[in-house]
Amino acid sequence: MRFDVAPGPHTAPIASVPLTMRRVLYALAPAALAHVWFFGSGFAINFVVATVTALAAEAAVLRLRRRPTRVPLNDCSAIVTAALLSFAIPPLAPWWIPAFGAASAIVVAKHLYGGLGRNLFNPAMVGYVVLLISFPAELIQWIPPRMGDLDYQHLGFLAHLTYSLTGALPADVTIDALTRATPLDLVKEGLRSAQTYSEVRAGSLFGGIAGRGWEWINSFIALGGLYLLYTGTIRWQIPIMLLVGLLFPATLLWLFDADRFATPGFHLFSGATLLGAFFIATDPVSAAESDRGRLIFGAGIGFLTYCIRTWGGYPDGMAFSVLLMNSAVPLIDRYTRPRIYGRD
Amino acid sequence: MLEYTPDRRPTGGLRLPAHKEASTAQPIARGFMPRTLVLALQQHQGPPTTPVVRRGERVLKGQVVARARALRSAAVHASTSGHVRAIEERLVPSVHAIHRTRCIVIDADGEDEPLPPGSGAAWPEDPEEQLERIRDGGIVGLGGGVFPTAEKLGPHTPCKALIVNGVECEPYISCDDVLMREAAAQIIDGALIMRELLAAPVCIVAVERDKPQAIEALLEAGRASGDASLKLADIPTVYPTGGERQLVEMLTGEEVPSTQYPSEIGYICQNVGTAYALHRLVRAGEPLLSRIVTVTGEGIARPRNVETPIGTPIGELIEFCGGYVGDVDRLILGGSMMGYALPNDEMPITKGSNCLIAAVHREVRQDFSERFCIRCGNCGTACPARLLPQELLRAARDNDHALLDEFGLNDCIECGCCDVICPSHIPLTEVFRNAKFAHARYQRQEVFSAETQQRFKRHEERKRANVERGKARQDHLIHEVETDKAARQRAIEAAIERARQRRCNDSDAE
């Protein structure tokens, strides 16, 4: 009897890129729902706009580069980029903010460097930083969480959609009545104006550990992160070291002076700490390649984030830290190559 | 029998679905007798054997049909009685690929008539003679490496430990497992014979934890032997911990240097099947006539382990196991990781054939469409040699030979872990296999071109020296003629003499 031959190994592959990306999306789903619950439908609108733009931009660039479009488009990586970007931008944003961010991420950060697998920088963070630098006013329009006892105005889905598309608010609402500073902003400003940390956090936007609502969203993000660890989609080196890099200086300085420095718990559950640890810094393409390199890469991001938050010009520093450490990856890779078996 | 605690955890590797239950459900099937035997003259790593039978001659079971000329060789025996039909070239599966080699083809007569009893001499006392007997007994490493056992048991760097390898980590293969369950005492006996020859202070039997029955049987046999040097290491079920280098590292914490064999740092690894074969040779005078072969896969009617005479055509063995069922997509010799696909089932089982998988469509890798590397680094984590396959891939595709050396292309053991775990489905192992050929060719070419350059430089130098020497002589003559009358006269006479000589020669020729 005759048989067809094929090169080994014959064992079927046990992983695939689309599966990895889909798992990341599943892991983000609970946090996304929590986001919608606390901050209204803005997240959903931004996500849809960002996804459509990202896919359209990817298809367009692939067409221009004369590459096949089907396989890269169905790997879900553009959707992951869009989802991460949507977590970074405020719910109350005009439609062109997520669109511009997603287009920058896909066109500039991803395809100008050669497409998936070739990009030096994390696409979602490039998209976010482009927005942050180009349109700072739109990027600080955060809104307070929807909690029963908080007396703030909130928009319904249609009003959100109208604002996003046309910039028009319902007649009786002004933009200033809707927006509030984020907890990270409040702490930064408060400490700068010589308030103590406990005075700042006595405000109604603060819960037991960090900002109300944010505590829940970030808990769901941590849950998603554990799912990724459990399924082997990500490895522990980056998230754990990122948290260590951030929480270690946070704890030291807080112990040194609890009035002038926020608690480690606040840092853990505020801003992009957990999202960064489990979802952003773990982007394999732009991270260091060896396990040892990933320890350094993660710790660097955590430490830089803490420095930017505490002494820098921005309330959160995850995006900048990730991009800075991305640029250090070739150097890290060079000095953390594992020693080959049987060689000196 | 004491427990041996491994020094380290396995480096890299994967936990893979084992697929061994189908073949381990029954005991070893014995008594299978093929109609034809195809005995390759080279079934081991080393120089081929020389046939000592003629066409048409009747051979008996156990008779030497091809003799080993060097210690790095191993004799070949008729595994049953019959008539030699032909001695001809055939395609035979060897360690990594199919190769063409001379084979003795025997038509079995079904009588299975052994050599007359008492024809074998008693086991000698002298170690050197013992090694010769092992070579003449045709014993080679049955784990798949088919390295002549006599060579491996010969005098070496002082042996620190004999490692008896019953790890069998690759999916589907279970021939060692069932042999350990059924013949633990014989394996232990064979191991002790090896230990004696090597004068090894300790003998470590290593078995994966997923073989509790084998471990139980070995412990029992070890206790019964009462030998204090025997130790049993039950090691984690991770592929490819059964590789020699990986096993040595895990058990002892020592790494085998890149360019050396484990024996050069004092560790001798022997497969359990080899220990069993040695026991048969020493205690019963029986050379290597058969081996256990796992016949499995969803395309086999009755998967099982079969005691298979060496030289059995694969088709006959599969027929013995009930033949094919369903749509067999691929016939694999070896395990599903390091085995290779056979184009047909006409080739023979050799001493190194441990497993046959008749795989249906869903069992084997089908999707060969690859995506871009996303640098996830899982390949590096899975690599037991601690290489960075993603970097090697880039160097291989760029043909950057300096980088290939730096990233350790030749340290790749081709276990296939990186390949199976790659989410972009890049055929890394195949790329590396091909790159090794290209790299070796490149290195040969480098040496050749360096030598050529040297030769050319020397040639040019000689040429220049010649020209200079000639010029110096000419200058000298001119100088002499111009300055010395007598010398001028001599020169004229010499010229006349030369002319006359030439004329004489010319007239002679007419």
Low-confidence stretches of chain B: none
Major sheet details of chain B: 5 strands, parallel
Which structural class should the secondary elements of chain B be placed in?
Answer: alpha/beta
Oligomer: heterodimer
- Taken from the alpha-carbon principal axes, the silhouette of chain A is globular
Task: Give, in spatial order, the strands making up the sheet with the most strands of chain B.
Answer: 1-11-10-9-12
Radius of gyration of chain A: 21 Å
Task: For the structure shown, list the relevant keywords.
heterodimer, A: 344 residues, mainly alpha, 62% helix, B: 510 residues, alpha/beta, five-stranded mixed beta sheet
Describe the structure.
- The complex is a heterodimer of chains A (about 350) and B (about 500).
- With about 350 residues, chain A is mostly helical.
- Helices cover about 60% and strands about 0% of the residues of chain A.
- Chain A is built from 17 helices and no strands.
- Chain A has helices at about 15-40, 40-65, 70-75, 75-90, 95-110, 125-135, 135-140, 155-165, 175-180, 185-190, 195-200, 215-230, 235-255, 265-270, 275-280, 290-310, 320-335.
- In chain A, helix 1 (about 15-40) runs parallel beside helix 4 and helix 2 packs across helix 4 (about 75-90).
- Chain B is an alpha/beta fold and about 500 residues long.
- Helices cover about 35% and strands about 20% of the residues of chain B.
- Chain B has 15 helices and 17 strands.
- Chain B has helices at about 20-25, 125-135, 150-155, 175-180, 185-200, 210-225, 245-250, 270-285, 315-320, 380, 390-395, 400-405, 415-420, 430-485, 485-510, and strands spanning about 1-5, 35-40, 50, 60, 65, 75, 80-95, 100-110, 160-165, 205-210, 230-235, 265-270, 290-295, 305-310, 330-335, 340, 355-360.
- The longest helix of chain B has about 55 residues, at about 430-485.
- Chain B is globular.
- The model of chain B has no long low-confidence stretch (mean pLDDT about 90).
